[in-house]
Amino acid sequence: MARRTSRPVRLFADVVGILVLLGCLFPVYWMVSRSFLPRNKIRNPEPTWFPFGGTNDNYGRVFGGGTFGDALMTSLSVTLLTVLVALLFAFLAAVAVSRFRFRGRKSFILTLLLIQMIPAEGLFISQYKMLEGMSLLNSVLGLTLVYVAAVLPFTVWTLRGFVDGVPRELEEAAMMDGCSRLQAFFRVTLPLLAPGLVATGVFGFIQAWNEFTLALVVMTDPAKETLPVWLVGFSESRSRGVDWGAIMASSTLITIPVIVFFLIVQRRMVSGLTAGAVKG
Amino acid sequence: MARTGRRGTALPLGLVLPATGLLVLALGYPLVRQVFLSMQEFGLAQQFGQPPEWVGLKNYSEMVGDPYLWKVVLRTVLFCFVNAGLTFLLGLGLAVLMKRMTSWVRIATQCGLLLAWAMPVVAVMIVWQFAFDTEYGVVNWLLTRLGGDFQGHSWLIEPLSFYAVATLVVVWMSVPFVAFTLYAALTQVPDDVLEAAEIDGAGAWQRFRHVVLPSIRPVLLVVLLLQVIWDLRVFTQIYTLQRAGGVSRDTNLLGTYIYTLGIKGGDFGTAAAAAMFMLALTVVLTAPYVRMMLKQEEEQ
User: For residue B152, which of A112, A132, B65, B83 sits 20 to 30 Å off, Cα-Cα?
Assistant: First the structure.
């Protein structure tokens, strides 16, 4: 049974909750609403709180510049490639760690945990030199390489939890019915892992899509920038007065995929975060 | 249970191989290489193709003798502790309150938190920069309305208010993770133990102090240490605010310092030495966490 909460305490908690909600939503609201405001209203000392009858000019200027499309393509290719490679490699490793006891298993797990503590800023100089030597600077492949390394530990860890969650007895039953070990795995276990793969993939997507530091270091050619790097450059490229409308419009455009993916798996992410904490 | 035998060891090792190979290539090799880089000198000649010169520990000794490095290190550690501390306290407070909220308020709050957590850092930075903009920022407008003299106030010029803005953004983005994790831990505290304590006459604060806190201690420690690690390496927030505000020498933290030295300045040797310094700092700060993890793995 849940414990009772006294009314004043509940009221206080609710008020704080609503304030926190507003604090979380305000920047998003400000960003989206400004992106539809004409220039003279953004530059009005008295802020417009509820912009109705907006304009699409800001978005027009974003696409009109021509460089947004290039950055979008780079971001999409790097992100999708990162998710695919990370999921595949992590899936194999997760199966090994969850279903087998082998020599080096423990050190593999520990290494994964330790890697998560290495700050990107502590390695990006030598990663830059390495990619330079391999002629992979300003290439989707080079950035993907460092991105996959950055998300792999977490991805293996999460997928391992999902594989652990599928009872081995199911596979064994299928094997009794005449499936081979491999068949049993592909027909019984894999479909049950689909939600785990989706949730992990979305996590990888959001990480790679939002990442800034490594992209800034690796993609030095303006034609090869990812969207976040492009956005920072774009936000200072106007010499006379900052074009806040277009900047808000591009920020909104970059955020949309994240919000869409987030809505798809929002419930699973809450339970995933919760489960992770409890296993801690 | 575990399957052994020859096939049984070859197969799992094969499954782990791709992930291991990639990690060795993308992290292991650069780590080794960084040690060598940090003992080389890169100057103007190297930009024209000359191989770098071996200088042994010269980069390290020069760096340690440079008071600027110590300033940056001190700033980094201070910034890290202030941010991690604030995030932790606010997240813990919010987690405790989330247990007391009406359920629809809780769900709405959690959705808002997740949104703040998932938003691209760069987009977040830009919106906050706009909010703190000297001329058109809503923060200056609001403070002026409340009676302050904030018309045309620049927030990013003064190091202290620069860090205040950075702290606000960093905390705003990090509280969700802490609140979620601690809320999850709090829901695991058994109600009957709390009721027993209440019957024994323990007040709300005593119950929190002596029953709740000890039972979520492992999660508390992990969250706090993760937060310290993450706040030690803030880069994007500082970098973007520097680009918007202009003063970088007075506001550099370790990450932006290394970036300025190496990628922008071309002095890869000194930058690599500074990066080794940062790794060492991380190791020192995370040693307790690593010890805890080792123990946990042993127990399993």
Answer: B83
Number of domains in chain B: 1
* B268–A121 C-beta distance less than 8 A: no
8 Å CB contact of B272 and A125? yes
B256-297 pLDDT tens trace: 999 999 999 999 999 999 999 999 999 888 887 778 777 876
Q: What CA–CA distance (Å, rounded) separates B274 from B33? A: 14
At the fourth CATH level, the homologous superfamily of domain A59-279 is: MetI-like (1.10.3720.10)
Q: What is the pLDDT of residues B153-194, one digit of tens each?
A: 889 988 999 999 999 999 999 999 999 899 989 988 888 888
Task: Name the residue ranges covered by the structural domains of chain A.
Answer: 2-57, 59-279
Domain-embedded: residue B172: yes
Say yes or no for a CB contact (<8 Å) between A117 and B229: yes
Q: B16 to chain A, minimum CA–CA distance in Å?
A: 4
B127·A231 Cβ contact <8 A = no
User: ipTM value of the model?
Assistant: 0.89
C-alpha to C-alpha distances, A206 to A80, A160, B115, B265, nearest whole angstrom: 11, 20, 12, 31
Host domain of residue B153 = 58-299
Q: Hey, what are B189's tokens?
A: 């505290």
Nearest one of B117, B58, B62, B75 to B255, comparing CA atoms: B75
Q: In CATH, what number is assigned to the domain containing residue B139?
A: 1.10.3720.10
Of all residues in chain A, the one with the smallest CA distance to B294 is A110
